[in-house]
Amino acid sequence: MGRFLHYYARYLAGEKQREEERIERVGALGRCEVPNKQLPALEVDLRRELGLHHSNHHHHHKQCRDPFLLYVLSLVLIDTKKTTEARLILLESLAGYPCNWSAWLAFQGLAKQERWTVPDARGFLSESSNHSLPSLRSHWIVDLFMASLSLEVLDNNHAIKLATDATMVGLLPTSSSRELIVASAHYQLRQYGEAQEFYERLMESDPYRIEGCDCFSNILYTQELLPELATLARRLVSIDKYRPETQCVVGNYYSLRNDHHRAVAYYRRALRLNPHYLSAWTLMGHELLELKKVGAAVEAYRRAVDIDPRDFRAWYGLGMVYELMKQQYYALHYFKKAAQLRPHDARMWCAVAQSYESDQLKMYDAAIRCYHRAVTLDDPDGVALSRLAKLHSDLNDRDEAAHYHQLLLDRLDGVSSNPTKAPAAATAAAGLDPLSGGGGSRSPTFEVEGDDAEAGGAPAARIAGTSTVDLEGCSESLLFLSRYYLDEGKFAQAEAYATRLLDVGGADRERAKILLKEIRSTVEQQDVKSAATAVGVGMEVGSTTMDTAYGLPQQQQTMMMMTGPSMGGGGADTGNVYTLVPGGAQSDVSDMSADSGSELSFDLCE
Q1: Do residues 534 and 526 make contact, with C-beta atoms less than 8 angstroms apart?
Q2: Rg of the chain's alpha carbons, rounded to an integer?
Q3: What pLDDT score was predicted for residue 21?
Q4: Which of 320, 374, 471, 606 has its CA 20 to 30 A from that of 30?
Q5: String of b and e for 87-124 (b: at least 16 CB within 10 Å)?
Q6: Which of 558, 568, 567 lies closest to 592, judged by CA?
Q7: Which among 536, 480, 548, 543 has a CA at the least distance from the CA of 512?
Q8: What is the C-alpha to C-alpha distance for residues 248 and 263, in angstroms, rounded to an integer?
Q9: How does pLDDT run across 334-353, given as a tens digit for each residue?
């Protein structure tokens, strides 16, 4: 152990010297690669200590070596970009002492650099265990590492499954590392209630814990729990105010208070303490974007991408910056990057669709496909349905627009529906990659709003998506459907939607009143026309019956209308006979009563 402390202290001293030299050159937040000058001599000494040489490093499994010295050597090899040898050295170190979690995290970093999936990493460990490291084959910590790696590659459901397995819980019932994995996975899945419960349990079991509190503060930020966030910030400041996580939590607190300048100041402090703190770079980019400091925001997001190219939030932030600058081609590129890293997130597809829909690109078929992809991914905010309805309406496809407006209302009402109904355009495009572009329809653009639930920060720049559709947000759907069914002649449905629009209030209430008057006026006009049509049909039927009774020929249709009793005295029955004679011919039908009558003849040819 003494030799490990000696060599590890030399490694840390070199890291401290390297950081001081970097700050002297470019400042605390500058970008400059400065090597650790201790690494060459440290590598030589460690190889000699362990009996390793460049010529025989591939035979190093044949003898037992100090696993902690092997761990230090692996760190040196990683810093000098000798990743293949570092991976083998790490495996030997883990075989000698499997419970060195720092070594597992170093191996996880290598796997992430190689862009390994969880099956790739498991296959590599299994193959190595079968050949030369049998001690790792069935060790319980392998499953915990796989859960951590699943979280890192955003396979959150698999991470939860592994970390909550009965065997794992039985072995580690109170493990903070296991519970932190579960809490972080729920957070990434936007299951904030479950995540908050796990984080609160962690805080209760370990009151002085700081690791993971930055993610906990993001949850409190997303739910706008300002008192709880203030309590968490005060607690962390009292524990250790010089930790980057503490500065980040305080920055989130000021961001929620819309004090963006102070939020940026605290994120900068966090980065001075740890220039590789990914969340701080992303959060500071959000705040700078909120302050309209576009150039500084771009630099912050790019620094985040340099640290971790798989961080979708930084790519998304870059897309938002270029969208703000009306450079939609660049915005589309960065939004595509974010969607490729997070293909199961509906918000990423909505952002891609927005770029396709912009006035510069006008690729509306591709936008429709992306919105459909978002709908199939259970768009939590209803943004995709709203945009699909608007887009089809602008394209004069009223039937499809009505369909999506109805789905939007069903979503508000909690009615089970089929949001994946494929319209004609989507059916024709079935099987195409939504990111591939294509299409050439027309539609106006729209602006993305919302907050980044994943990272916390400025409400207008965070990624939680646009505001959730509520009753007021559905006023356009109610108005469209009422007008649609009125034009279709379905007055009962049109009146039902217009009546519901009355509940919204404000200007929408006045529009609903006007629409209801129009509907009722149209219904009355239809009733009058129907009544007139019915009278005309009845008179034609009566004429035909009388012609048949008196034996008149078809060309000599005569309508006789008998008046009632005369209003004069004497009680005599007086009848008036109106005879319609085609061609001026007269019909002798005035002899219908013993009393005198008057006869008026109308020539139908006149």
Answers
A1: no
A2: 39
A3: 87
A4: 320
A5: bbbbbbbbbbebebeebbebbbebbbeeebebeebbeb
A6: 558
A7: 480
A8: 8
A9: 999 999 998 988 999 999 99
The sign one gets for the Cα dihedral 286, 291, 294, 296 is negative
Name residue, tokens 């503060």: 217
| Helices 491-501 and 475-487, axial angle in degrees (round to 10) | 160
Determine the pLDDT at residue 454: 39
Q: Are residues 40 and 91 in the same domain?
A: yes
- Do 383 and 480 lie in one domain? The reply is no
Same domain for 380 and 486? no
Q: Which residue has the tokens 């499953």?
A: 143
Residue 19 confidence (pLDDT): 86
The dihedral formed by the CA atoms of 222, 225, 226 and 229, expressed in degrees to the nearest 10 = -80
Q: Looking at residue 435, what is its pLDDT?
A: 44
Q: What is the pLDDT of residue 45?
A: 93
Tell me which DSSP letter residue 579 carries.
Answer: E
What is the pLDDT, as a whole number, of residue 525?
85
Sign of CA dihedral 113, 117, 118, 121: negative
DSSP assignment string, 264-332: HHHHHHHHHH-TT-HHHHHHHHHHHHHTT-HHHHHHHHHHHHHH-TT-HHHHHHHHHHHHHTT-HHHHH
Residue 522: which domain range?
474-528
| pLDDT tens column, 63-94 | 678 999 999 999 999 999 999 999 999 998 99
Q: Is 313 part of any domain?
A: no
Same domain, 112 and 3: yes
pLDDT at 538: 58
User: Per the structure block, which two tokens stand in for 123?
Assistant: 């296959």
Instruction: Tally Cβ neighbours within 10 Å of residue 431.
Output: 4
CA 433 to chain centre: 18
- SS percent in the chain: helix, strand, coil, step 5: 65, 0, 35
Do residues 469 and 345 share a domain? yes
CA distance 63 to 51: 10
The Cα–Cα gap between 579 and 598 comes to: 11
Q: How many domains does the chain have?
A: 3
Q: Which residues of 350-389 are buried (b: 16+ CB within 10 A; e: fewer)?
A: bbbbbbbbbeebbbbbbbbbbbbbbbebebebbbbbbbbb
Statement to judge: residues 468 and 481 lie in one domain = no
CB-side exposure of 321: number of CA atoms within 13 Å? Answer: 25
Cα distance between residue 61 and residue 82, in whole Å: 18
Which residues in the chain show pLDDT less than 70?
Answer: 28, 53-63, 129-135, 137, 415-473, 535-606
* Alpha carbons 95 and 84: distance in angstroms, whole number: 17
For residue 224, give the DSSP letter.
T
> Do residue 467 and residue 521 come from a single domain?
no
Residue 388 CA to residue 380 CA, distance in Å, equals: 15
Place of tokens 């039985």: 170
Residues 414 and 499 in one domain: no
